[in-house]
Every structure is written in structure tokens, then in C-alpha cells.
Write a structure and sequence with these properties.
Elements: H1 2-6, H2 8-30, H3 33-42, H4 51-67, H5 76-99, H6 102-127, H7 132-152, H8 154-164, H9 172-191, H10 195-227
Helix pairs in contact: 2-5, 2-9, 4-5, 4-6, 4-7, 5-6, 7-10, 8-10, 9-10
């Protein structure tokens, strides 16, 4: 395994997969911008929820910590992607707090402080573990749980698409970006022999395939239905 990791071609392929994952993840990070343009324009969060951004922030912080040399080896590309992600999610959360009504503003601020406190406990607590292997397994396990929970969230959308037979609530480019990002980090984890990376991203890849398959199936069906004549002549 060490010979493979030190092989220049192997390393190049691994880095290429990680860089691709960073690029596709950036597409996900900027996807809420249209929503926040609307929030800023209307000076109100309306019916939008700030919880997805808080959860995404927690996920990015845990994955970023796992990628640092203090926890795992040779995972710099995990640090870069999740650092950018954490900055975006923190910015979205702060904007949400600014434009939310007072009751929601206070609740979201409390949750934000809770997320930051929990991450601080995880980071400082893990550093108290002198055995590097145990520290790696502990933080890696938290990373897997966090990522699987994040990738499992589209299950609600998948169920909604099947029930309504409509892809209205499953944006194509968001689903595509999620699939491409998961696949890139699946390859990155495999090439880096890191189960804490390739297992959750493998699940994300499978869910991405399901989402895209449903999208094309129901999009095609919707197109065919719209082409049917509204009035059928029996003359």
C-alpha cells in the first residue's frame, strides 16, 4: 500500500480526484445564493429555514478537522474544500440571522453558538487523546456519521418525487453537483485507502445515481404527458 501511495501516477490521480471534488463542491456551496438574493431583496427570511446551513456548517467543520495533519495524514484537499464550505455556511447563517424575525433570530443565534461550541469540544477533546490511531478512528467515525446524515437528507426529496411524480422539488444541477462531488471524493478516498472518506461518499454516489435516474424518468414522463392532446376527438 505504501508503494502505491508513493507512486507519482497514483498520487497524481488521487490529487486530481480531490481537486475535482473541490470544484464540484464549490458548485454546491454557491447554490443558495439565489435564495439569499431574494432574502436580501425582501429583507425577510420568509418561510426559509436556517437549519440546513447550521447543519452543513457542523458537517464542514468536522470534516475539515478530520483532514488536518493533527488527525489524519495526507488529506489536505479535505481541509481546503471544507474550509471554504464552512466560510460559506457561516456567511449564510449570519445573513439569515440578520434578516430573520426576532424570535427566529434568537433561536438561530443560540443554535449557531451551540454548533461552534460542539465543534470546539470535539477538536479540543480529540487532542487530549494521545494515541493518534484512536484519535483518527474517533474523529473519522464522527465524519462518517455526519456525511452519511448529510447524504441521507435527499431521501425526503426522493420520496417526494416518487409520490408527486414531479421533479419540481429536485433541481437537476444540484443533484448533478452532489453526484459528481460524491464520486470524486469516493475515488479520492479509495486512492488514499481512507475508509472514512470513501464509505460515506460511496453512499452519496449511490443516492446521487438514484436522484438522477428519477429526475430523467419523471422529466421524460412529464414531457410526454405535456405533448398529449388536451381534447381527444372521437369523430
Amino acid at each position: 500500500m505504501s508503494d502505491s501511495i508513493s507512486n507519482p501516477v497514483w498520487t497524481t490521480c488521487k490529487d486530481a480526484a480531490g481537486i475535482a471534488g473541490n470544484i464540484f463542491a464549490f458548485g454546491l456551496f454557491v447554490s443558495p445564493i439565489p435564495t439569499y438574493r431574494r432574502i436580501i431583496r425582501n429583507r425577510s427570511t420568509e418561510q426559509f429555514s436556517g437549519l440546513p446551513y447550521l447543519y452543513a456548517l457542523m458537517n464542514c467543520l468536522i470534516c475539515m478537522w478530520y483532514g488536518t495533519p493533527l488527525v489524519s495524514a495526507d488529506n489536505l484537499l479535505l481541509v481546503t474544500v471544507n474550509s471554504f464550505g464552512a466560510v460559506f455556511q457561516l456567511a449564510y447563517t449570519i445573513l439569515f440571522i440578520i434578516y430573520a424575525e426576532r424570535r427566529i433570530k434568537v433561536r438561530t443565534l443560540v443554535l449557531l453558538l451551540a454548533v461552534l461550541s460542539l465543534f470546539a469540544i470535539i477538536a479540543v477533546g480529540s487532542l487530549q487523546i494521545s494515541d493518534r490511531m484512536i484519535r483518527w478512528i474517533l474523529v473519522g467515525s464522527l465524519t462518517v456519521v455526519s456525511l452519511i446524515s448529510m447524504f441521507a437528507s435527499p431521501l425526503f426529496v426522493i420520496n417526494l418525487v416518487i409520490q408527486t411524480k414531479s421533479v419540481e422539488f429536485m433541481p437537476f444541477y444540484l443533484s448533478l453537483s452532489t453526484f459528481l462531488m460524491s464520486t470524486s471524493f469516493l475515488l479520492y478516498g479509495l486512492l488514499n485507502f481512507d475508509a472514512f472518506v470513501y464509505v460515506p461518499n460511496g453512499i452519496g454516489t449511490i443516492l446521487g445515481i438514484i436522484q438522477l435516474t428519477l429526475y430523467f424518468h419523471f422529466k421524460k414522463k412529464s414531457t410526454q404527458d405535456s405533448m398529449e392532446p388536451l381534447i381527444v376527438s372521437h369523430a
